Fold this protein.
Amino acid sequence: MPSPISKSTRTILDYLGFSIAVSVFVLFLTQNVLFQRAESSLVDQRFQARGPRSETADSSDIVIVEISQASFNSLPEKWPWPRSYYTHLIRNLERAGAKTIGLDVIFSTPDVRDPAADAEFKQTVRDNPNVVLAGKIETENRGYTIRSLGENYGNIFVDSTVRFGVVNIRTDADGVLRRYMPFTTDPAGRIPTFSFAVLNSFFEKPGSLTALYGDGFFHFAGRTIPCYDETSFLINYCGPSGTFRRIRFEDVIDDKDFLTVDEKKYGLETNTFDDSDYGYLNDGTFNGKIVLVGSTVPEDKDLFPVAIGQGRQEGDNQMYGAEIHANVIQNIFHGDFIIREWIWMNAAIVFGLSLFTFVYTAGLKSIKTKFSSLIEILGFVIVLSECFIIWTLSMQLFVRHNFLVEEMSPFLAVGFSYVASTVYHYLNERKQKVLIRGLFSRYVSPTVVDEIVNNPQKLRLGGERKELTVFFSDIESFTRISEKLEPENLVAILNEYLSMMTEVIFENQGTLNKYEGDAIVAFWGAPIPQLDHALRACRTAVAMQEKLAAVRPRWEAEGKPSLRVRIGISTGEMIVGNMGGVGHYDYTVIGDSVNIGARLEGANKQYRSKIIVSDSTYAQVAGYVIARELDVLIVAGRTEPIRVYELIGLANGAVARDRVDLVDCFTKGLELYRRRRWLPAIEQFETTLRHFPHDYPSQLYIERSKAYLVSPPPDDWDGAFALREK
């Protein structure tokens, strides 16, 4: 027979088991798209904290020629521009020494104004093999596609004789662009994306050359690019929009042979391109550089959310397509790549943090001291400190070493390990209470069981005085219904009814007191304190009526009786606790307010209403319900009158507008009645009946008013009605 495991060994195994379970759960959970989005937002946070690299604009070999709104205003021809503008641009950039020219513009249609300009443009592109055109493909499944927009990829100048790249950009699930694909695929094979096509030209490689994937890296032109996945790598943004130098389109084509709008208007030539003193032709701006031509007009929709913004306001992380390509090219030029944490490293970190956090916090919780709250605070401080260290280290690794570690999985590992240690401590400390729960769960509601388990001293006889809300319900004409049914059928439908109603009570955190035949007694506010106990009781009453209304058609179709229920609700001080004899007791309520609740349930017969609540209940829920004052009653067993209300529905519930109108119309009549204006009261109640023919309280008050016309009440009449029936 194997020897029993020692307590210390069992504890070690428990610690390891919980830590492994937490680690597996966290690694699985972080594969969910919501957590991946959260992780992505933390990546953006690191970019924002790092900020732009100030040296990029001055030292970069990339210049952007922007097609901006200012360009539209400065050039004489309206958009779309004549193709000759682009021909002129290419020739001027060639003259200025540009090594590679990337046109991030899709020429999808011919130049209708000057067809000859298309031929000239195409010939210019062929004569200058350092020009790279842009094409598009139709995308499916977020970038894994293979269908082109035709043989020319949506650009009429693309063919096998020119260099081109695909400009399709693939965003993450949250719509933010963090990754870049070095190539894409269509039926003809792999095609370089635009940035890599530009680099092929710059490095004088074949135009069809694409990066090769292997061992977690893309290999391209002697450079090794760390992968994010098998199709993309992370863009190491040099800064927000505006980081790279931009030069306006019109300033590049404005030479001695071209007149801008202002030059024509004022008769003064500026010639920003070839002026001998300040022109771009000779100042080295473009010499040996990669020039990317693209739109910076938001209306062109070549604008994407990226991982870094200006930091001035929310939503200022937008970047134009040409700038995105510039960032990619800059990364590859300088080997400035983001290295993603390896999967095994993340798993090891998650397990290590889970084990440390679980052991440390579980050890703290096992310390027996009267300062248990301080122990809890210390454990929480440890968790917060771990999270701060994780955040700080991940930030420093990113800023200083371009090393990207996951933050969500370590955060979750720490958090869930803390929770797991709390659960472990709870299970160890509360084993003895399982016996109590098993003994008492059959007799009282789950909330009472929880209170007894947490506070065994409540098992004493007697109780305490508290303000609570009590609820009584009864099935209308149940005796008559029971006489028509076989006992088996009666029990079946009664069980179904009681189960549904009890479920509603528990959904609203009520305490089920008892069943008395078809009657249900419940209360709110104990054993668990509830500041809104009156509102919970009212919600329960409305929900019960709604649930019964929904199930009646089914019952009728099954040949079962259509049950209707009367409910009374009262709020006030009462005694609550375990009452009875030694060895047999109930958790119940007693007191005058309890009796009122029972009487109000019966009062529904008098008014043919469904739910009546006391004035003390209504005072606490007036702003949350639709109700009307029904009467001032002196219930059996009392001498003092109480004002009662008919609860019609919840203020935010599905109460029809006409029910609100009923309340207003009826209330006007009741006010006249209380002022002894019998004839106007009768007229008002008759008006109510014309709109609401089945409103029995209006009929009742007409009868009372007519009776008082014949025999007026005494001068000290207070409007109270003595309810003699229980």
Residues 365 and 376 are 7 Å apart (CA to CA). The two ends are 71 Å apart (CA to CA). The first strand starts at residue 62 and ends at 67.
